[in-house]
Design a protein that fits this description.
The complex is a heterodimer of chains A (about 270) and B (about 425). Chain A has about 270 residues and is α/β, with parallel strands linked by helices. Chain A has one domain: Alpha/Beta hydrolase fold, catalytic domain (Rossmann fold). Chain A contains 9 helices and 8 strands. In chain A, strands 1-2-4-3-5-6-7-8 form an 8-stranded mixed sheet, sandwiched between helices. The longest helix of chain A is centred in the C-terminal third of the chain and has 26 residues. In chain A, about 45% of the residues are buried. Chain B has a single domain, classed as Luciferase-like domain (TIM Barrel). Helix content of chain B is about 45%, strand content about 10%. Chain B is globular, with a radius of gyration of 21 Å. Classes of the chains: A alpha/beta (about 270), B alpha/beta (about 425). Chains A and B meet through helix 6 of A and helix 6 and helix 10 of B.
Chain lengths: ~270, ~425
C-alpha cells in the first residue's frame, strides 16, 4: 500500500490517499474511528485498484475547517472524485464512510456502479437507537466494537499509550478524529439520509455484524427497505467492524457481489447491443 | 476590591449513595430524585440568600446557567436575576451568564439582558460563557465542531444589537436576520459590562484581553490550581501588552466562616464533602464532547499546564479540601488572611464567593453570609484601592427609583420561627 497527498479544490484540501492494486478502481471510505488498512483491503487489491482517501480532519488530510456540515463534505467528495477523474466505479464505505458513500450515491446515482455499505451510519430508529459511542471509555468502546473481546484487534483498541509523546500524540489524534466525526454524527447520526435513499440506484450490498453493539443489525433491514433491490449479508460473530474481525469473508462477500454486478452489467450491455 | 456572592442553586437532598448508585449528577441525572415541593423551598431559600448577601456588604450577586444538573438548577439564570433585580437596590446583578451559542436567534439574549438592565436601573453585568460541554453539547445537542464559531458569531451579533442605533441586517453563518432591532435597549452605554466565565480554555484568555472583557475563572478546584490558570491569563496579558489590572479578572472560591476551626469543620464539613463527592460525580464520558476543547487546550491539559473540570480524586475529606485550597474555611481572621493571599496571588479584583455549597441548609448558609459580611468583607474591600480603575463594573442610573420593598431583617428569622412552630406542632 502506498500513501500520497492529493490536492483538491486548487489546494484548499491536501488529502492523504492510500492506494494499492491495479485494475478497476474501487473507492473505500473509512469509518468514524479513522482510516485503517487491513487484510480486507489487501484481499480486494487482488482484483481492484483500491483507493482509500482519509477524510479531512483525520490523519494528514487538511481542509477540515472549510467543512461546516455534511453537505460541505459531500461537495468536497465530488471535487475529490473529479480531481481523480473517478466515475463508473464501486463505492465501499464503513460507518461514517458508509453514510458518505450513500449520500454520494444519492446525489450522483449515475456515477457509481455498485455500493457496499458496511454498518453505515445515517439512519435513526427511535426504538433501537445507535449507541452513543462518543461517550464510551476505550474499554467500553472496544466491547461495543468487537464481537470477541479477546481478539488481538479488540485488545489493541482497548489499550492506549500511557507515557511520553506517544500518549500526547494518541490523544490529540483521537480528539481530532472524534471531533471530525461529531461534526457529521452529533448529537445523533441522522442528517436526513432516509429522505434521499430512494435516489440510490446502484446495486447495493449492506453488510452488518450480528453482534454490532453500536448499531444493531436492524439497521441493515432499515437500509434494505429504503434502497430498491438492496441485499443484506449478516456476518456472524462480528461487531461493528466486520471487515476487521472477519476480513477474508467480508472481502469475499464484497468481491463476489461486485463480480455479480459486473456480470449483470455485461449482460445488460450485451442485450442493449 | 469587589466582592460578589455566587450561588449555584444546588439540589441539597441527593441520596447518601448517589455517587455509588447513579451514573452522573449531570446530563442523565434521574428525574425521580427531584422533588418539586422540596425544590420550591430550595429556590426560595436561594433567592433569600442572594438578597441577604446584598444587605451584608456584597457588591453584587452572581447566578449562572446549567442544564440537567443536580448542583446547578438555574437553566434560566435570567429568571433568578429578574427576581433579585426587583428586591435589591445597589448591588450588581451578575448573570454569568447566558450560553449565547444556544439561543437562536442570539438576539434573545440581547433582549433579555436589556430587560434586566432596564428593570435593575443599569445594574446588570452580562456574562457570555461558551457554556460547559455538558450543557451545550450534551443537554442542548449543540454540535461541538461549530460551538465556538457559533459563540463568536453570537457575541458579535449581541454587541451590535446593543450598540447599533439603526435597524440592521445580519448575515452570519448560523444566524441570518433581515431586521435586527431590539427593544428595549440597555441603560448602560455602550452596553452592560461583559464578563466571560471560563473553565480554562486558553483561547479565552487572549480573546478577553483583546476584547477588553473581564475573565472570570470559575472552577471548584480552588485557589491553588486556580493560580495555574490565572498565571496563564496574566502572562498572556503581558504578551499582548495589556495592563495587569486586577479588575480585569475574577475568581470563584468556596468559603465557610465560623467561630472556630473545629466548629466550621463540624458544621460545614459534611456539606463540603457532599458537594465534591456527590455533586461533582459526573460520568467521565460526559466531561467533554469531541471537539469541545481546541487541540491547543487539550495539549496544555495533557502537559499538565491546565486543569480540567472533573479532574478529581473519587473521594475527598474536609481536610483534603482545605489542604488543596478547594475551600477556604476558618474563623473570620483566618479566612480574611487566606482570601487576601488568594486575591494577591491570583491578582484579581473580583472575588466571587460561594457561601452556600452542596447541602448547606438555609440557616447555616445565612449565618455564613452574615459572618462573611460583618467580619471578612470589610477587611478586604480596601485592596487595590487607588491603584487601579475598575472598568468592568456597573454604571447604574442616577436617581433610579427604589425597587420593591426591601427586607428590613434577615429573612432567616421569620423562616426559622415558622420552622420552630411547625416542629412544635
Amino acid at each position: 500500500m502506498r500513501k500520497q497527498q492529493v490536492a483538491v479544490r486548487a489546494g484548499a484540501f491536501d488529502i492523504e490517499v492510500w492506494e494499492a492494486g491495479s485494475g478497476t478502481p474501487v473507492l473505500f471510505l473509512h469509518g468514524e474511528g479513522g482510516p485503517t488498512w487491513t487484510s480486507f483491503h489487501d484481499a480486494l487489491t487482488e482484483r481492484y485498484r483500491v483507493i482509500a482517501p482519509v477524510h479531512p480532519g483525520y490523519g494528514e488530510s487538511t481542509g477540515n475547517d472549510q467543512l461546516q456540515d455534511l453537505p460541505d463534505l459531500i461537495y468536497y467528495y465530488l471535487d475529490f472524485l473529479d480531481q481523480l477523474k473517478l466515475r463508473d466505479l464501486p463505492l465501499i464505505g464503513h460507518g461514517l464512510g458508509g453514510m458518505v458513500a450513500t449520500e454520494l450515491a444519492a446525489v450522483q446515482p449515475d456515477r457509481f456502479t455498485a455500493l457496499v455499505l458496511i454498518a453505515p451510519m445515517g439512519l435513526w430508529l427511535a426504538d433501537d437507537p445507535v449507541q452513543d459511542f462518543f461517550v464510551m471509555s476505550p474499554a467500553d468502546l472496544a466491547a461495543a466494537l468487537y464481537h470477541d473481546q479477546d481478539s488481538t484487534a479488540a485488545r489493541a483498541a482497548a489499550e492506549t499509550p500511557t507515557e511520553g509523546d506517544a500518549r500526547i500524540e494518541f490523544h490529540l489524534e483521537r480528539a481530532k478524529s472524534m471531533a471530525t466525526a461529531a461534526k457529521y454524527l452529533w448529537p445523533i447520526p441522522n442528517r436526513g439520509l432516509a429522505k434521499r435513499l430512494h435516489r440510490v440506484t446502484a446495486p447495493t450490498l449492506v453488510v452488518w455484524g450480528a453482534s454490532d453493539r453500536i448499531a444493531s443489525p436492524r439497521y441493515a433491514e432499515a437500509f434494505r427497505e429504503r434502497i430498491a433491490g438492496a441485499r443484506v449479508e449478516i456476518v456472524e460473530e462480528a461487531g461493528h467492524l466486520p471487515q476487521e474481525e472477519h476480513p477474508a469473508s467480508v472481502a469475499e462477500l464484497t468481491s463476489a457481489f461486485l463480480a455479480e454486478v459486473d456480470q449483470n452489467a455485461g449482460r445488460a450491455s450485451a442485450l442493449s447491443r | 476590591m469587589k466582592l460578589e456572592m455566587f450561588h449555584l442553586m444546588p439540589y441539597r437532598e441527593l441520596p447518601e449513595d448517589f455517587a455509588e448508585k447513579h451514573h452522573s449528577v449531570w446530563v442523565d441525572i434521574p428525574s425521580h430524585l427531584f422533588d418539586p415541593a422540596r425544590a420550591h423551598e430550595m429556590y426560595n431559600d436561594t433567592l433569600d440568600e442572594l438578597e441577604f448577601g446584598t444587605t451584608v456588604g456584597y457588591d453584587g450577586v452572581c447566578v449562572n446557567e446549567h442544564h440537567g444538573n443536580g448542583y446547578g438548577m438555574m437553566p434560566s439564570p435570567n429568571i433568578m436575576a429578574a427576581s433579585v433585580a426587583r428586591r435589591t437596590r445597589d448591588a450588581a446583578v451578575i448573570v454569568l451568564g447566558n450560553s449565547i451559542a444556544l439561543y437562536n436567534p442570539p438576539v434573545r439574549v440581547a433582549e433579555e439582558f436589556a430587560m434586566l438592565d432596564v428593570i435593575s436601573g443599569g445594574r446588570l453585568i452580562a456574562g457570555f460563557p461558551v457554556g460547559s460541554s455538558q450543557d451545550t453539547n450534551f443537554a442542548y445537542g449543540m454540535n461541538p465542531a461549530t460551538l465556538r464559531d457559533r459563540y463568536y458569531e453570537a457575541e458579535r451579533l449581541i454587541i451590535e444589537a446593543w450598540t447599533n442605533p439603526d435597524v440592521f441586517s445580519f448575515d452570519g453563518k448560523y444566524t441570518q436576520l433581515r431586521y435586527v432591532n431590539i427593544w428595549p435597549r440597555p441603560i448602560q452605554r455602550p452596553h452592560p459590562p461583559v464578563w466571560i466565565p471560563g473553565g480554562g480554555s486558553i483561547e479565552t484568555w487572549g480573546w478577553c484581553l483583546e476584547k477588553g472583557y473581564l475573565y472570570a475563572y470559575l472552577s471548584y478546584s480552588g485557589f491553588k490550581r486556580g493560580k495555574l490558570v490565572m498565571d496563564g491569563f496574566w502572562k498572556k496579558a503581558d504578551e499582548l501588552g495589556v495592563e495587569r489590572n486586577p479588575y480585569h479578572a475574577g475568581f470563584l472560591q468556596l468559603v465557610a466562616v465560623g467561630e472556630s476551626a473545629s466548629e466550621v469543620e463540624e458544621k460545614f464539613g459534611p456539606h463540603g464533602e457532599y458537594f465534591y463527592n456527590k455533586m461533582l460525580h459526573v460520568y467521565p464520558g460526559f466531561r467533554e464532547a469531541p471537539g469541545y476543547r481546541t487541540l491547543d487546550t487539550i495539549k496544555m491539559g495533557l502537559l499538565g499546564q491546565t486543569t480540567f473540570f472533573g479532574d478529581r480524586p473519587p473521594s475527598l475529606t474536609w481536610k483534603d479540601l482545605l489542604a488543596q485550597g478547594n475551600i477556604v474555611a476558618g474563623t473570620p481572621s483566618q479566612v480574611t488572611e487566606q482570601l487576601e493571599q488568594v486575591i494577591k496571588d491570583l491578582h484579581i479584583g473580583h472575588l466571587m464567593v460561594l457561601n452556600q455549597f452542596g447541602s448547606i441548609p438555609h440557616d447555616l448558609a445565612m449565618d455564613n453570609i452574615k459572618l462573611m459580611g460583618e467580619k471578612v468583607l470589610p477587611k478586604l474591600r480596601h485592596l487595590w484601592d487607588g491603584r487601579y480603575e475598575d472598568r468592568w463594573w456597573i454604571k447604574p442610573l442616577d436617581g433610579r427609583r427604589s425597587v420593591s420593598p426591601l427586607r428590613t431583617q434577615a429573612p432567616t428569622t421569620a423562616r426559622a420561627e415558622v420552622l420552630t412552630a411547625a416542629k412544635a406542632r
